[in-house]
Write a structure and sequence with these properties.
This protein is of the alpha/beta class. It has 8 helices and 9 strands.
């Protein structure tokens, strides 16, 4: 089955989740492929990914990295694989732990026909969270409020990792110059997309806390995110970003099949 849409899934110790995730991804009614970027997981996640790649040539690819090197650099490695080697026209990012449910992907692809970047959003009408602690919900909302306020981001869910980028968006951004390496990479990418005037849309999703395994978010990641927002705020004050025509942001579009 030929597809021009690929999902990048960074992994570190996701052996408990990867089989089920890939099974659901490849069974979607809208064909997608997967690029697994594994950071030398000691639990054998990389070997599981290789088996899927061998059984599904052209639809599953694996990028092996020598160690745990950060979420942002994993995304960049996946972007380069998708654009330079696979020839993808649409590139999605999602977590391996089912906090992002694959069932939303067809609607994200549909909206990408009229938007350049599509976010699976917790904070638009119809979106929400499930099984998340109050502390995690509070931290997420505060992070969004600060990022949107200081950086002028229009998307309601500025820290979401469930996204779709059209090929031309990623080609317009100097990926090797992005400073952020952890979860703050997500804020920086959205900042760069908006500053270039790419059209951004959101669809509502229910974000679920991971079913298996351990969370990768740490206190250090939170501090890095705070630093990234401050650095980008100063950059915003200086201005001078390359721009496209004025951006249009939809607060929520559900089941847009146009």
């Amino acid at each position: 089955m030929v597809t021009d849409t690929f999902v990048i899934v960074p992994t570190y110790n996701e052996a408990d989740n990867l089989d089920e995730l890939l099974e659901q991804l490849l069974a979607l009614p809208t064909p997608v492929g997967a690029i697994i970027v594994d950071d030398n997981s000691p639990d054998g996640t990389g070997d599981i990914a290789e088996r899927w790649a061998a059984d599904n040539p052209g639809r599953v690819y694996v990028v092996h990295r020598p160690a745990k090197m950060g979420l942002g650099t994993a995304y960049i490695a996946g972007f380069k694989k998708a654009i330079d080697e696979v020839g993808a026209e649409r590139i999605l990012t999602m977590d391996a732990d089912f906090s992002h449910n694959p069932r939303y992907i067809p609607d994200m692809i549909a909206l990408s026909r009229v938007k350049h970047v599509v976010i699976g959003s917790r904070y638009v009408p119809g979106g929400g969270t499930r099984n998340c602690t109050r502390k995690r919900i509070f931290l997420s909302r505060v992070a969004n409020m600060v990022a949107r306020g200081l950086l002028g981001l229009k998307a309601r869910d500025a820290t979401a990792g469930f996204r779709l980028y059209r090929r031309e968006v990623l080609q317009s951004i100097p990926l090797d110059e992005i400073f952020s390496s952890g979860y703050s990479f997500l804020v920086e990418m959205l900042f760069l997309c908006q500053r270039r005037g790419w059209q951004i849309g959101e669809i509502p999703i229910i974000f679920e806390d991971r079913r298996k395994g351990q969370t990768k978010i740490s206190r250090q990641e939170i501090l890095k995110a705070q630093y990234t927002v401050l650095r980008l705020f100063l950059r915003r004050l200086r201005g001078g970003e390359p721009r496209r025509p004025a951006i249009t942001v939809s607060s929520a579009i559900t089941n847009d099949k146009s």
